UniProtKB/TrEMBL annotation:
InterPro entries: Aminotrans_IV, Aminotransferase-like, BCAT-like_C, BCAT-like_N. This is Class IV aminotransferase. Transmembrane segments: none annotated. Pfam families: Aminotran_4. It comes from Riccia fluitans.
Length: 351
């Protein structure tokens, strides 16, 4: 079996043409809404399927509202699950046979307008494409290696919609990111940090009131240790209103943190306070949660946010714990919840 297998389905039928990796496929496809998910635990379940369908439906409506002439075919209420499941079933039926024991199945699902008078759902005028491919996931409950990220801009204009055009738009920033960095964190002003090109972004810091308590204690007693409990920390991530994607892992993470008593605030992390940051991580459906070990910020934020203006810049660097106590705890909570909410693959067996 060839390395890096792919299965391409259009309208419930396998297409022999290989469209290439998911990013290349999205760049060359008709514009539309898409989502990316994958299997878990050796292909046994599909990650957060119901939530992916809800977010895909939301993206379709947002795209139609923002660009009615560009997306007239999305104006009607689209029954997303019924539209996409035949193609997902067909792709999984072959992909699960190609999957090696150490692999999971990565699914990219695109819904866009049909060029045919006879579309898949008649009056809906929508087409569905599903690209299944191999994905080397970490072992059960393992965490991916920490990455380096760089802050560049600007943020997305219609961030809450997962739009296939973004795969082309983000190329400008991907092409100029510093060597050795794995992800770009978007910002409009060089201070408020929003999201990654393909991830949501979180930082972990000591709560302000705990820092004040610690300062008073240290003034009363010389020295003192800096050990902290989980309750001493808080997690920050940009709110949807600031312009970030409504990520399915982001939402699960916020839920489990609140249930577990881990302080989390939806407020864009400010670079001006980066000296207070202890840990950071990014999330998406493929990586689940991946620690960040360093953040690079331009020493001088350009007035014009053309990607080329970030090519020849000097950088400030914020180094972080690569996988600290809070990150590990949140990762475990998220994995437990994901397993509870994911859909058994057997549910997608062809009838």
């Amino acid at each position: 079996m060839a390395e890096g297998w792919r299965v391409f389905v259009h309208g419930g039928v396998i297409v022999p043409t290989d469209p290439g990796p998911a990013a290349a496929f999205l760049r060359t496809s008709k514009p539309g809404a898409y989502t990316t998910t994958r299997t878990l635990d050796g292909g046994s379940s599909l990650l957060l399927w119901e939530r992916h369908m809800a977010r895909l439906s939301e993206s379709l409506q947002l795209l139609h509202t923002a660009h009615p002439h560009m997306y007239p075919h999305l104006g009607n209420a689209v029954q997303v699950k019924g539209l996409v499941e035949p193609s997902v079933e067909e792709s999984l039926s072959k992909a699960l046979n190609l999957r090696r024991p150490e692999e999971e199945v990565n699914l990219s699902i695109l819904v866009c307008g049909s060029n045919s008078r006879h579309s898949q759902l008649g009056s809906c005028d929508c087409d569905v494409y599903v690209l299944a491919s191999s994905y080397r996931a970490p072992g059960k409950d393992e965490i991916l290696p920490a990455i380096r990220v760089a802050v560049m801009g600007p943020g997305r204009k219609l961030a809450r919609a997962k739009d296939s055009l973004w795969a082309s738009t983000r190329q400008g920033l991907e092409s100029v990111k510093p060597s050795g960095t794995n992800e770009v964190i978007l910002s409009n002003n060089g201070n408020a940090l929003l999201e990654g090109l393909v991830t949501n972004f979180f930082i972990v810091k000591i709560r302000d009131e705990k820092i004040q308590e610690q300062g008073e204690s240290q003034r009363r007693t010389e020295g003192g240790d800096n050990e902290h409990n989980l309750s001493d920390y808080e997690v920050l991530t940009a709110p949807l209103s600031d312009g970030v994607l409504n990520g399915v892992i982001r939402n699960v993470l916020i839920e489990v943190c609140r249930e577990a008593g881990i302080a989390i605030r939806e407020i864009s992390p400010s670079w001006s306070a980066h000296h207070m940051w202890k840990e950071a991580f990014v999330t998406n459906a493929l990586r689940i949660l991946q620690p960040v070990k360093s953040i690079q910020m331009p020493a001088s934020w350009p007035h014009e946010l053309d990607p080329e203006n970030f090519r020849e810049t000097e950088w400030q660097i914020c180094n972080l714990e690569m996988c600290g106590m809070v990150t590990k705890q949140i990762h475990d909570l998220v994995m437990d919840r994901i397993r509870q909410l994911s859909t058994p693959v057997i549910n997608f067996a062809r009838k």
